[in-house]
Each structure stands twice: as structure tokens, then as C-alpha cells.
């Protein structure tokens, strides 16, 4: 994410600046979507009825996740990309701009310590020469480099536009996610059960690259988020911890 010192001027409204980067953004109408009146926890942004904070558990991983997030996703409480940062402290979040990359992202992409892979389907022939498989991730580990999963955080349509309109990603190897997993995400209706949400993509990549513990923690945290948010939509409090909740509580000790 952008430097923490980058803050909007005190005289300006916070709604005129991107929440992840501090960069100016076009004015938007007041948020009036369903649930906008609900009192939310300042820590996890879930309705206080089923706050997620007691179940936040940190996990270490060899691989890192960098999210290139469409600006609209920052406004969506149902966005799962932020769950990754709650679990993996080295996660970085960058807001996607069509005209130019985030300066920090541009610098990191040139840093030889990292081996970034852009996560995207291999369904078009024009970038077939860039496509690799998960073995490439294991190979860079042997070279003492840090594998990085660059995930395009947005809808499928937004992600495709981000991939095509970001020339600074053109030199990166393309890593398609191969998995039999079907989405368990309940808060938005996917076009297909094979279309995983952002957190689920990260979970599967971590698991396949050898970071099983981090994948397990994030998977449980995702399930807790999924259940808690779904129940809150009907103003129902989860009375007893679910299995995923209990596993996370046990990890906290």
C-alpha cells in the first residue's frame, strides 16, 4: 500500500481521497446502498452484531500477496481482499489507475528480491509465451527470491480491463490458478462456481505454493467472514462459534 505518511490535506474531505493511497479521486455520491445505516465495527467493518475482530489470527508465509485493487472495490464492505491483509501482515494493497502505476508498486516490481507473478487465466493466445505454472513459484524459492502473487482485485470484467490496460504488468509471468475448488462465497452471486473471490484465490495459491498453514488460517477467516456477514444481513447474531471460529480461537490460545 502507499506510504502511510501520504495523507489528504486537513482542509479536505476524506471522501475526496482514495482510502488506500491518499490520492485524489473523483467525487462520488453519498453511499446509499442496502445496509448503509448499519453500525459497523471500526476494526473489521462488519456489522457490530457479528464483529470479526475476535477471530483475527496472523500467519506467516513465504509468498506474499500484492493486491491491485479497482477503486470501486474499496467502497464495498463485501470485498474479501482486505481479509488477506488481516491474516498476512506483509500484504500490500495498491489502487489501480489506468494512466500510471502506483510509484511504490512500480519500484517493487523492479526489486530483485521479489519474483512477482500476475494471476490471470491463460485463455488468450497473445500472452501464451508468458504463462507459467505453480512449479515456477517453487523454482524462485530455490533461488532465495520471494514469490509474489499479484492479484487483480475486482470483478471479472474489471480484472480483464486492468490486465489489458496496465503496461507495467506486461513483463510479468502470468500464473493461472488451477484448482478444483468451487466458490463458497455467499455475498455476491458469481457467474460460475469456478469463479473464486479474491480471498479464495489467495488461499489456493498459498496452499499450492507450500504455505499450507497460512492458507488454512485464511480459509477459516474467510468462512467466518462469509457466515458473519450473511447472518448480519438478516439481523441474526451467531450465538455459538462455528467450527471455523473455534479453530481460530484455539489458535489464539
TrEMBL record:
<dbReference type="Pfam" id="PF03942">
    <property type="entry name" value="DTW"/>
</dbReference>
<feature type="domain" description="DTW">
    <location>
        <begin position="37"/>
        <end position="234"/>
    </location>
</feature>
<keyword id="KW-0808">Transferase</keyword>
<dbReference type="InterPro" id="IPR005636">
    <property type="entry name" value="DTW"/>
</dbReference>
<keyword id="KW-0949">S-adenosyl-L-methionine</keyword>
<keyword id="KW-0819">tRNA processing</keyword>
<feature type="compositionally biased region" description="Polar residues">
    <location>
        <begin position="1"/>
        <end position="15"/>
    </location>
</feature>
<protein>
    <recommendedName>
        <fullName>tRNA-uridine aminocarboxypropyltransferase</fullName>
        <ecNumber>2.5.1.25</ecNumber>
    </recommendedName>
</protein>
<dbReference type="InterPro" id="IPR039262">
    <property type="entry name" value="DTWD2/TAPT"/>
</dbReference>
<dbReference type="GO" id="GO:0016432">
    <property type="term" value="F:tRNA-uridine aminocarboxypropyltransferase activity"/>
</dbReference>
<feature type="region of interest" description="Disordered">
    <location>
        <begin position="1"/>
        <end position="29"/>
    </location>
</feature>
<dbReference type="GO" id="GO:0008033">
    <property type="term" value="P:tRNA processing"/>
</dbReference>
Amino acid at each position: 500500500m502507499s506510504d502511510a505518511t501520504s495523507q489528504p490535506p486537513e482542509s479536505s474531505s476524506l471522501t475526496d481521497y482514495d482510502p488506500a493511497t491518499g490520492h485524489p479521486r473523483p467525487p462520488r455520491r453519498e453511499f446509499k446502498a442496502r445496509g448503509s445505516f448499519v453500525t459497523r465495527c471500526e476494526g473489521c467493518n462488519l456489522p457490530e452484531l457479528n464483529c470479526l475482530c475476535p477471530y483475527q489470527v496472523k500467519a506467516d508465509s513465504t509468498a506474499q500477496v500484492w493486491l491491485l485493487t479497482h477503486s470501486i472495490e474499496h467502497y464495498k464492505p463485501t470485498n474479501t481482499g482486505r481479509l488477506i491483509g488481516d491474516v498476512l501482515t506483509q500484504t500490500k494493497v495498491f489502487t489501480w489507475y489506468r494512466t500510471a502505476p502506483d510509484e511504490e508498486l512500480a519500484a517493487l516490481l523492479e526489486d530483485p528480491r521479489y519474483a512477482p507473478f500476475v494471476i490471470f487465466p491463460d485463455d488468450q493466445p497473445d500472452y501464451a509465451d508468458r504463462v507459467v505454472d505453480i512449479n515456477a513459484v517453487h523454482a524462485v524459492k530455490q533461488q532465495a527470491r520471494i514469490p509474489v502473487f499479484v492479484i487483480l482485485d475486482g470483478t471479472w470484467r474489471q480484472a480483464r480491463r486492468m490486465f489489458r490496460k496496465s503496461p507495467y504488468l506486461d513483463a510479468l509471468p502470468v500464473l493461472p490458478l488451477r484448482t478444483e475448488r468451487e466458490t463458497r462465497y455467499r455475498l455476491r452471486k458469481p457467474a460460475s462456481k469456478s469463479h473464486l473471490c479474491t480471498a479464495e484465490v489467495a488461499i489456493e495459491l498459498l496452499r499450492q505454493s507450500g504455505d499450507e498453514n497460512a492458507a488454512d488460517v485464511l480459509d477459516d477467516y474467510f468462512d467466518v467472514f462469509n457466515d458473519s456477514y450473511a447472518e448480519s444481513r438478516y439481523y441474526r447474531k451467531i450465538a455459538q462459534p462455528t467450527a471455523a471460529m473455534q479453530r481460530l480461537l484455539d489458535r489464539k490460545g
